[in-house]
Amino acid sequence: MNSVIQKANRIIIKVGSSLVTNDGRGLDHAAIARWAAQISALRNLGKEVVLVSSGAIAEGMLRLRFDQRPTDVHELQACAAVGQMGLAQIYETSFRAHGLGTAQVLLTHADLADRERYLNARSTLTTLLRFGVVPIINENDTVVTDEIKFGDNDTLGALVANLIEADALVILTDQKGLFSADPRKDPAAYLIAEGKAGDPSLEAMAGGAGSSLGRGGMLTKILAAKRAARSGADTVIAWGREDDVLTRLAGGEAIGTQLLAQTGRTTARKQWMSDHLHTAGKVVLDAGAVAKLSKEGKSLLPIGVVEVRGEFGRGAVITCLSEDGTPIARGISNYTSSEARRIMRKPSTDIETILGFLEGPELIHRDNMVLI
Ligand SMILES: Nc1ncnc2c1ncn2[C@@H]1O[C@H](COP(=O)(O)OP(=O)(O)O)[C@@H](O)[C@H]1O
Ligand SMILES: N[C@@H](CCC(=O)OP(=O)(O)O)C(=O)O
């Protein structure tokens, strides 16, 4: 089978600490330069790429002259803050060599569980992609303790794949992919070329949670693939030092382990929206807006809304009805119910004057909407 990366338009690439820091010996300039060159080539193919990079703690330990990983959480946090400067610097320089700008985005899992922050992170990332910038994401280690203890950027990569509905997640690591058992311990272990994301037998191969404490290990990668598949993203786990790994994947070559999502993006998104039915407020649309949504695939603008029913917050999933009460679409509202009442029937150019701020010209952006 061809690599799923060939067809993927929006790709999250996660690189692990050992790769980025040359097994803790210091930032691997040459490897990072090679990935930057390949990501630039992917961008020239029209693909959008977001990089999730670990390595802040490993690099910070080196800069603060720790021989061993500190056990004190606040010392780890200090290492992460110091090391992150190195990461930001090297990525900026490496991508600049290809005429690409970078942006630093530090996130916590809690940020992505909060609806409003989730929407903000989503809008910022998609705007950065629109600007042609490569977002470089890491955990915001200063403010969290759980993630720092378990070191889990694999999960963050999957959450970002869900957040911006990526087509694929590529996890680059220090092994050629998922093996039937940990290849460091079992010399007879063989590479699994393809599997179904979410297949429980894969978790057993990754050795269980016990072996993944301290660093993510393979289990968090398998669980990340399962999570990424919820929004329809396929996952590839591959060796980060394989020659031209990213460009070869983009060329269709199957390298490493492919874990395929079992539901497509549209089905996954519909599922997500239907999971949020219980929070729904409602908006009633005029005939013109109904046609724009259902026939032309457009966003919902406030001008097409004639009534707002119920109370809801920004980021709530709301249902759009036609004037005869037929459900048309469901989607995430950019405005609260009281704001929506003030801007309904008004052109989007008036929103800022009426509310004093602008979250976006649309009440529900097309990307956040499914037709019923
Ligand atoms: N079934 C398996 N296949 C491959 N690697 C495995 C497996 N089970 C455990 N591992 C271990 O997982 C490690 C990769 O995880 P980790 O060290 O967290 O990397 P990263 O820093 O890239 O996230 C490998 O070096 C390997 O020892
Ligand atoms: N935020 C941490 C991430 C730690 C982590 O997940 O590491 P890894 O298992 O190597 O991807 C850091 O930058 O060190």
Descriptive report:
This protein is an alpha/beta fold and 372 residues long. It has two domains: 4-265, Acetylglutamate kinase-like (Carbamate kinase, 3-Layer(aba) Sandwich); 276-371, PUA domain (Archaeosine Trna-guanine Transglycosylase, Chain: A, domain 4). It contains 15 helices and 13 strands. Strands 3-4-2-1-5-7-8-6 form an eight-stranded mixed beta sheet, with helices on both faces. A five-stranded mixed beta sheet has the order 10-9-11-12-13, sandwiched between helices. The longest helix is centred in the N-terminal third of the chain and has 24 residues, at 73-96. The structure holds adenosine-5'-diphosphate and the ligand N[C@@H](CCC(=O)OP(=O)(O)O)C(=O)O. Adenosine-5'-diphosphate (ADP) binds at residues 16-19, 173-175, 178-179, 181-184, 205-207, 211, 215-218.
List keywords for this structure.
372 residues, alpha/beta, Carbamate kinase, Archaeosine Trna-guanine Transglycosylase, Chain: A, domain 4, 2 domains, eight-stranded mixed beta sheet, five-stranded mixed beta sheet, 15 helices, binds adenosine-5'-diphosphate, binds ligand VHF, cytoplasm, ATP-binding, Glu/AcGlu_kinase
Please bin the fraction of helical residues: 25-40%
Can you tell me the CATH topology of the largest domain?
Answer: Carbamate kinase
**What is the β-strand count?**
13
Proportion of residues in β-strands: 15-25%
CATH homologous superfamily designation of the largest domain: Acetylglutamate kinase-like
Cα(first) to Cα(last) distance is 34 Å
Tally of helical runs: 15
The major sheet is characterized as:
8 strands, mixed
How would you spell out the order of helices and strands?
Answer: EHHEHHEHHEHHEEHHEHEHEHEEEHHE
Globally, the shape reads globular
